[in-house]
Amino acid sequence: FRDYCVICLRWEWPGSPRSIEKCNLEASFFEGHFLKVLFERMGRILDQPYDVNLQVTSVLSKLSLFPHPHIHEYLLDPYVNLASGCRSLFSVIVRVVGDLMVRIQRIPDFTPKLLLVRKRLLGLEPEGPIIDHMTLLEGVIVLEEFCKELAAIAFVKYHASSTP
């Protein structure tokens, strides 16, 4: 994180978000094509290949590390106020988790299968027979790890901002 801060110093980013009085509240919000694609991909984490999920979460993690107040607020603050129809990383994850909760009801032996897939991904279990719902199970594991990574990033950024 400190490396990112050093790199970003030359960009002279503000230290805090712009006050609401200075914002154009009439303009509709658009996250931009880049974040739009990342959020759409994140929304499909349960249905797309493992390597795609790793790439998407890697890019979002790197973006979350940037010490810009608006990027921090938009990607890491679950309480950010959003206009109707807008989404944040948190709202995308909440939607995915809601979908997951419905879908796991239809998967017999979900927890043991998830544990087996995790062990295989870690190389602790040899490859064996194909497991049903493999893409979804790998997506769940990537989602779990990504949420832990976001929590760690928020923790580091918080402590870095409160340390002189």
From TrEMBL:
- What is the protein name given in its UniProt record? F16B1 protein
For this chain, the family text in UniProt reads: Belongs to the FHIP family.
Q: Where is the FHF complex subunit HOOK-interacting protein C-terminal domain?
A: 31-123
Q: Name one Pfam family in it.
A: DUF5917
Provenance organism: Semnornis frantzii
What superkingdom does the record give? Eukaryota
InterPro entries per record:
FHIP, FHIP_C, FHIP_KELAA_motif
